[in-house]
Amino acid sequence: MLSREILQRSLPPWHETINWADNAQAEDYRGLLLSYISPVDIIVIGGKRIKEMPQVPDGGTIRMLTYAELVSQAESELQWLLRELSRDSDKS
């Protein structure tokens, strides 16, 4: 199985909006880390994201998520897991 490292950065409440400077900083972090660990995915979490910025800008290994998106994704994954576990228990 391929191992991947994840660096997660939660922006402080006073940093209201994730912007391109945050993406550039994440790119810098990845550049520094690549000599120690590879591959590395980075998740930046904040209150809002500028409208022009997608969740996954160009490279695909940096994700820019709002707290609401993170909670929504976690809820979706939990619901999927519960359905799978229920399906497995029905087969027994």
Describe this structure in words.
The structure is a single chain. Helix content is 42%, strand content 24%. The mean pLDDT is 88. With 92 residues, the chain is an alpha/beta fold. The protein has a domain at 5-67: Double Stranded RNA Binding Domain. It is built from 2 helices and 5 strands.
Core attributes:
92 residues; two-stranded parallel ribbon; alpha/beta; Double Stranded RNA Binding Domain; three-stranded parallel sheet; 5 strands; globular
Distance between the termini: 29 Å
| Spans where pLDDT lies below 50 across 5 or more residues | none
Helicity, as a percent range: 40-55%
- Number of helical runs? 2
Return the structural class. Answer: alpha/beta
**What is the N-to-C succession of helices and strands?**
EEHEEEH
Instruction: Just give the CATH class of the domain at 5-67.
Output: Alpha Beta
Cα Rg: 16 Å
- What proportion strand? 15-25%
Give the overall form.
globular
Strand arrangement within the widest β-sheet reads 1-3-5
Average pLDDT taken over every residue: 88
Quick one: biggest sheet? Answer: 3 strands, parallel
CATH topology of the domain at 5-67: Double Stranded RNA Binding Domain
Architecture of the domain at 5-67, according to CATH? 2-Layer Sandwich
Question: How many strands?
Answer: 5
